Amino acid sequence: MGMSVTISAATEQDAEQILKLQFLCYQSEAELYGDYSIEPLTQPLDSLKAELAGGTVLVARLGDEVVASVRAVVDSEGTARINKLIVHPRMQRHGLGGRLLDAIETRLSEGGAAKRFQLFTGHRSEHNLTLYRKHGYEPVSTERVDERLSLVTLAKGAAAGAFVASA
């Protein structure tokens, strides 16, 4: 495969590809928890377009194909809430998820907007938990959603993930 993956800001023209990729990527989560009604599988296109307009969305491309994506929004207290980090199944286990996570942290740290990062995943999603811990995230809370699912929230300070050059 002679092409390299590039990471850039998503545009509205990427919305349909992101939504299709999201549907593909969340099948394994739905199967893991026995729930195919989860929000990533039912999100309408107009809702995704609103996220593109109101937050930070990055995509990874292989040629013209969107093969990974991540979204975030920074609240008024400086907490960047990162969500829907997705990587095409054929591209998983090659470091792309970590590259996207680093890229969105860097983007959100520019200008000091993000003071801390927060994300969540299901308690059985071991690959996600391992990735997040590897990138400095620590569990801060667990919320039981129902008998099948507990959401683990992980967080870290912005300085923990930023590579800042000193003068």
Description:
This protein has 167 residues and is of the alpha+beta class. It has a single domain (5-161), classed as Aminopeptidase (3-Layer(aba) Sandwich), CATH 3.40.630. It is built from 7 helices and 7 strands; from the N terminus they run E-H-H-H-H-E-E-E-H-E-H-E-E-H. Strands 1-2-3-4-5-7-6 form a 7-stranded mixed β-sheet, sandwiched between helices. The radius of gyration is 16 Å and the shape is globular. It starts with a strand and ends in a 6-residue tail after the last helix. The model is unreliable at 161-167 (pLDDT under 50).
Which key terms come to mind for this protein?
disordered C terminus, 167 residues, 7 helices, 32% strand, globular, Aminopeptidase, seven-stranded mixed beta sheet, 35% helix, alpha+beta
Radius of gyration: 16 Å
**Name given to the CATH homologous superfamily:** Gcn5-related N-acetyltransferase (GNAT)
SSE ordering: EHHHHEEEHEHEEH
Mean pLDDT: 91
- What is the SS-derived class? alpha+beta
- In what order do the strands lie side by side in the largest sheet? 1-2-3-4-5-7-6
Low-confidence stretches: 161-167
Span from first to last CA?
A: 40 Å
CATH class: Alpha Beta
Largest sheet, if any? 7 strands, mixed
CATH architecture: 3-Layer(aba) Sandwich
How many DSSP helices? 7
Number of domains: 1
Based on Cα principal axes, name the global outline: globular
Helical residue percent? 25-40%
CATH fold name, please?
Answer: Aminopeptidase
Strand content: 25-35%
Number of strands: 7
